[in-house]
Protein 1
Amino acid sequence: MFLKRFLIVGVAAITLSACTLMGKDYAAQLAARQQAYAAVAGAAVNSFHYTGLWSWEPLSDTQLAVYTQASEAWLLDLKGTCRNLRFTNHIGLTADAGVVSIQLDRVLTGPGDAPCVIKQIRSLDLSKLDSPLQGHPREVEEAPRPHK
């Protein structure tokens, strides 16, 4: 009986420590990605033109990089916390006539989540980024901005 409890506690402790180490590793990787993108971000702009989104990379609950092409990307800063941004499998992006604008357009993370207002847009110089967009392109949904 004692041996069984000892084994259960031991396995739980090992599992918990592995999860903690993985969490620290993920946090360190995310911080490194944020710094890498910030280092190659240009001056803030009010909007950007696009015909579609190629991919995206979440950097935090308030920031993401969106790729309009494999060689063109923008760093978006969002107002407040964007729920599920780091965990969703796809995002939506509102726009009007192929233009994404600060304060007017939003990032959508799911049907039950509030839209995330775009606070700032900066162009990214991908030629200076060591490893642009890690992994495979992510699915993107586009939606027209509702007119008031």
Protein 2
Amino acid sequence: MRLESPSPVPLGKMLLSMKAIDLDCYRNWTKARVLSVLLCWCLATASLPALARSMPGVHLYSQLARFTGGAPVRFIVRDTQGLAGLNVTCSLLGCQVLQAIGDPDGQLFVIQTSGLVSSPIFLAQLLAATGITNAEADQRGATPPAASDTMPWYAYDQILTNYYGADVWQGYVFQTPNQIVRTSDTQASFTVSGMGVKVALIDTGIDPNNAILAPHLVDGYDFTRNTAGGSEIGDINQSTAGVIDGSVQPVNGSTAAVNQSTAGVIDGLQYSAFGHGTMTAGIIHLVAPNSWLMPLKSFSADGTGYESDVLRAIYYAVSRNAKVINMSFEFTSSSVELAKAITYATSHSVICVASAGNDGSLTIVYPSGLPNVIDVASTSNSNTPSWFSNYGTPPVWISAPGEAVLTTYPYGTYAVGWGTSFSAPFVSGTVALMASLDSTNAGLLNQTTAAQALSHAQPIQQTGYGFGVLDTYQAVQAWQDFLTVSVNVSASCSGISCQANIQ
């Protein structure tokens, strides 16, 4: 929701009004009467920061606070004066600086109100303060829910096979979604596996003890607790672990068919998204088994998380040289700061991939709805649109399997998932394959060139699902062709004309 700031009365007029008042008469008024007058004045002008700076000894915030109420609210604030300036503003308005977000300019912070002043009034006061160039609510996002279906045949194929150094279920490797996107053909034909490419996963975290994923984890962080690692195991304890929810289907007693609404074998709504991050990581590993997985835990086990933690994760990923950012979550509203963070990432040749959402309609969610994000819809195992998937071109760029996807799950198990959350990592893994094709020219792979390569897809009849269903072979082939032309052009020319030919 956009909050419109009332037009403030110029400070000069306020000071003239004060001069016209006989201040001596105030000494005879009761304290309640003084506060009442100040309340009316502040509500009319919404100019507390300016007034407070002109009268540093008067803390109008504390007086206004006695007459309004509500729960504390978090805001994302950009202050050109940095932390020092924002601390001064918060001392005047009664807010608290919770943490810096980590943007390269050092101007972005999370603050929290006391809850004693209504949000519209506080926001108007905040925007009037010196140095504040943007302020927006720290909205909550979520991993989007979807419904499960019947168990696929490959969920029962538990014969072990070696997959890039780890023993995995055959069903995991030979499942229908993996065959649809032609992963095995691509890996063999182009000798690619994502080697050396960092893929950041902004999600619920990853199980660090998973034998398949553990050797490939790097540089993780838990933004929900401000601790290193990015593990999602800390969200549960021994009293809740391993409790099978009656709404999910066990596979031979060790695995559950989970979706993004029940998402897990852990009972209780507070654990409804437990395992989500480990599942998305398993899909990326399936496509690009030698890529590095960077777990950036920004969502709790219930599937919810603050936008500020997502922003922190994006800036963290760029600073740690991630090449791909997978975002299997959604916010219902756009955000100035989210758009800025994504733009910052793409300007550093980081490719951003996000799930289209599971409303089953022509609905735009964020960050997938932003113009410089590869928006991924879901298709079935017969290459038809998933009934739950959002659609629309733009913003949907491409589709990928998102039904009955068998992938890794905490505690050494596997799970089957439905949702666009599980379509996006197929695309992220494919970008990692492209990035590993020629490491010396990986800098040429950016948001635009990656999207162009991915557009070489398997067409489907329905409109609104981008260029069709992901084809890893065609995408990597298109990228190889682009590199061949680009390298040849680079060898035969230089300067501006050369750059123009490459583009």
